[in-house]
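FAQ

Q: What does a record look like?
A: Structure on top, sequence underneath. For example:
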């Protein structure tokens, strides 16, 4: 099992989106790469410095990191700074946070491809994961519990089950 951490705006939609793909073993919504103190959602919304982030545990025999990143870029605006859809603030920044140096070549390959497609520098930060704190329980699988909840990822990206 491998892990990657992706910040892509509101973590509610990102979690629902990635949960639908074969090879994704487990996801958890949380807060990453801010100060070394577990924040509350209220603190995150008041510029604690953390990014709403999704921890993704995946089986690399079923889904590659490259494929996960391709899927990620399908549902974010990689040129937007601290904003996705109607959500704005530092917690909605985009980022790819790796845990293993061996992940860097794959990340760089997809990142450069997306930058070429965009014709501009991307606003997606690529950093080693500094910290990750799980979000409160009510945020986990939020859109499954609240199907009418807002998300910048449109319904066309979700497979009906």
């Amino acid at each position: 099992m491998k892990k990657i951490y992706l910040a892509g705006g509101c973590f509610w939609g990102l979690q629902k989106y990635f949960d639908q793909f074969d090879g994704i073993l487990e996801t958890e919504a949380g807060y990453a790469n801010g100060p070394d103190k577990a924040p509350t959602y209220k603190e995150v919304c008041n510029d604690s410095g953390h990014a709403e982030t999704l921890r993704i545990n995946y089986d690399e025999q079923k889904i590659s990191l490259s494929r996960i990143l391709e899927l990620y870029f399908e549902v974010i605006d990689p040129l937007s700074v601290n904003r996705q859809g109607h959500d704005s603030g530092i917690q909605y920044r985009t980022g790819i946070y790796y845990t293993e140096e061996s992940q860097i070549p794959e990340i760089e390959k997809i990142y450069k491809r997306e930058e070429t497609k965009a014709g501009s520098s991307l606003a997606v930060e690529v950093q080693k994961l500094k910290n990750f704190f799980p979000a409160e329980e009510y945020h986990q699988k939020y859109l499954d519990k609240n199907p009418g909840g807002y998300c910048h990822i449109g319904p066309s990206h979700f497979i009906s089950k």
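Q: Is there anything notable about this one?
A: The CA atoms of residues 48 and 69 lie 26 Å apart.
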